[in-house]
Amino acid sequence: MAIRIGLLGGTGVEGRGIALRFAHAGASVAIGSRSVERAREAAAAYNQALGSGAIEGLSNSEVLGRSDIVFLTLPYDQAPAALDALRADMPSGLVLVDVTVPMAFREGRAEYEEPAEGSNAERLALHLPPGVHLVGAFKTIPAHVMAEVQTPLDCDVYVCGDDAGARARVMDAARLIPTLRPVDAGPLRAARTLERMTVLAVNLNRRYKRKGARYRIQGIE
Amino acid sequence: MAIRIGLLGGTGVEGRGIALRFAHAGASVAIGSRSVERAREAAAAYNQALGSGAIEGLSNSEVLGRSDIVFLTLPYDQAPAALDALRADMPSGLVLVDVTVPMAFREGRAEYEEPAEGSNAERLALHLPPGVHLVGAFKTIPAHVMAEVQTPLDCDVYVCGDDAGARARVMDAARLIPTLRPVDAGPLRAARTLERMTVLAVNLNRRYKRKGARYRIQGIE
Question: DSSP H helical segments within A27-99, as ranges?
Fold first, then answer.
């Protein structure tokens, strides 16, 4: 059976790329939103872009109930309250994946907005019930490159989290996407590095007038 | 005339790789040490490894007086006092390059030792006289890979610093080394990211049982 990928808040630009890449790779994908209507509209648009019917639109709580792995693509400031509200809908053993990076733009440069917890991933982990695992991943890959499913990624996806089994599940899922290499980045606090790497890549895009700066590590083949 | 590369504290493993790569690329290289005798011994050994005479051993203050760019490869805890002692020997316009990363090993993992100033590069910058520029670079490239001059690097060297001219000079110097791509990482505080990236690479080496993890960014060609 195909892996079931879910997205909470999957109607934005980050959700779009993840939904398209996983659906294109053969996964069953469910987009969640607070409004089921908006989720269905986004799913219909994504299916049309792919020429497939692999993506469905559901409520956020339905997504939590039917997915193996759920990506959090909620706006940064809304994510903690959304997780608190959905806490009762999270089955034990669920793997949630935080893909977001807190940054602000000042004087034409992106700056990392360091959370008091050390990273956004560590911040969100405090809002999950016991037995639900937070993994940080896909942070360093530009959303619009993810959304161009015909563009080879040719980069790494760094996966961090304190539960080794949850990390392994996300790495297995990432392996479905061609030209993407999952790399085990260790415990959740590695997100402190990964989130800053994203900010650096955003600034390199600006400096080099590109849009797709993304990392690949040499020497661990 | 060949670019004149200097190293303060160039008798250690990090200095060795930088000296060998630049000498191999045709630069004139001066190794500094508190002991001129030790500097000369190291230079002789490096010259023998290369089959050349491009590397000479001098005192640290002599290195500062005759080099276009000086790499700091001093032990982390000794560097601030060494810079304070050498302050009067630094000509205005000098470019100093910090290549080091503060880390400690706990439970088999490398951890970043965050300096109060935000990064080691920012910490050292406070010990320089006006008109001397600190650049952070070569932080993410493993020292032993640098020292294997026949091994293609196939990676980026990220260069950060608050003086754009000093960054450009270090990038120009780095271009002498084949298979290495200089990338302009912006202001000195980008070292907060680069130093953490080094720690991540060290941990990936341990996890993947490799020694040469190093970064290359896709999508900014």
Answer: 36-50, 60-66, 79-86
Residue A93 has pLDDT above 90, yes or no: yes
Residue B38, domain extent: 4-207
Would you say residue B1 has pLDDT above 80?
no
CATH number for the domain harbouring residue A11: 3.40.50.720
> Does A82 fall in a domain?
yes
CA nearest to A215 within chain B: B217
- Number of CB atoms found within 10 A of residue B61's CB: 15
- Cα–Cα dist A146/A109, whole Å: 23
Mean pLDDT of chain A: 96
**pTM of the predicted protein model:** 0.96
Chain B residues lying within 8 Å of A158, measured CB to CB: 200
Paired tokens of B35? 């002991």
In a domain, residue B221? The reply is no
Q: Residue B175: its pLDDT value, please?
A: 97
Tell me the per-residue pLDDT of B16-30, one tens digit each, with 9 for 90 and over. 999 999 999 999 999
- Interface touch B205/A199, C-beta < 8 Å: no
Number of domains forming the structure of chain A: 1
Q: Which of B111, B156, B220 to probe the A interface (max A CBs under 10 A)?
A: B220
Nearest to B8 by CA among B185, B127, B116: B127
For residue B2, what pLDDT is reported? Answer: 82
* pLDDT cut 90: percent of chain A above it: 93
Using a CB-CB cut-off of 8 Å, the residues of chain A touching B207 are: 184, 186
Written as six digits, the tokens of A201 are 């890549």
A36-50 and A13-24 are packed helices; what angle lies between their axes, rounded to 10 degrees?
Answer: 50
Q: What is the rounded CA–CA span in Å between residue B196 and residue A193?
A: 6
Selection from A85, A62, A82 nearest residue A6 by Cα: A62
Q: Is residue B140 part of a domain?
A: yes
Chain A residues 103-132 within an 8 A CB cutoff of chain B: 109, 112
Residues of A in contact with B197 (CB under 8 A): 193, 197
Q: ipTM of this model?
A: 0.95
Within a domain: A52? yes
pLDDT digits (tens, 9 = 90+) for B186-221: 999 999 999 999 999 999 999 999 999 999 999 998
